[in-house]
Amino acid sequence: MTLPRLNIYRHDRGARALVTLAGVIDPVTAPRVRAALEQCLRDGITLIDVDLTTVDRCDDSGLRVFLDVSEHAAEAQAFLLLHHPSPQTERLLLDTGSDGLLYPMRPGGARPQRT
């Protein structure tokens, strides 16, 4: 039996959704992430919190999903917030200048600093 490369959990509270991702975000799994986040917008969610605590790896295909959905959210007057990215994902966000768009958060709410 093959284990899934990515699990997606969603918990709604009014117009806010917590989407917890667990596993790997890559070209194979990125379409599932996109579908889950876009569904939040279609359901009228105005604040999507994405918990990346248990994401082992996120490549540029995952970054593209987050950027696209963030743009779609802004068009719908909604927000996408990333929480607890791994050091690798945090570096990807910083290196591409995407940290300002996606508001990655560290425990305690501190934003990472550019180096």
UniProtKB/TrEMBL annotation:
Q: Which InterPro entries match?
A: MlaB-like_STAS, STAS_dom, STAS_dom_sf
Q: Which CDD domains match?
A: STAS_anti-anti-sigma_factors
Ranges where the STAS domain occurs: 18-97
Origin superkingdom: Bacteria
Identification of the protein by name: STAS domain-containing protein
Query: What is the organism of origin for this protein?
Result: Streptomyces lucensis JCM 4490
